């Protein structure tokens, strides 16, 4: 099937420019999160300047979310119904799109924590953190219930 042209009705659901902006916003967040210069010698003017450049890149998160929200709203605006069946189907579609990746990343995170060297995984490696505590923490993270427990807010994938 050929790609739709800009004059076809199918092309109104896709905005190549916004996809590029979302990619730039995602790159900004990755660069901010993986900033190796935070721990570098800040006496060096070049390191300090690059660090000052990287620190504000956290604004990529709201940019990404606003664009994603716009694209979701634009995509579904013609099909919205105020019925229980539509809402149920919409929520199911969102869940099946997002949760599998969340499940995989959370599982990998807890596997890495389990086998990380002692002292490198924080509370996870303390002697009083039993296998039951680890199992409950993992289960609450995988079932999206960790937010109900203040002590678990930053466990697993903190941004989740």
Automatic annotation (TrEMBL):
Q: What's the superkingdom here?
A: Bacteria
Domain Acyltransferase, by residue range, is: 17-131
Which GO terms label this protein's molecular function in UniProt?
Answer: acyltransferase activity
Q: Does the keyword Transmembrane apply?
A: yes
Record key words, sorted: Acyltransferase, Membrane, Transferase, Transmembrane, Transmembrane helix
Q: Where are the transmembrane segments?
A: 20-40, 52-77, 97-115
Pfam families recorded for this chain? Acyl_transf_3 (PF01757)
Designated name of the protein: Acyltransferase
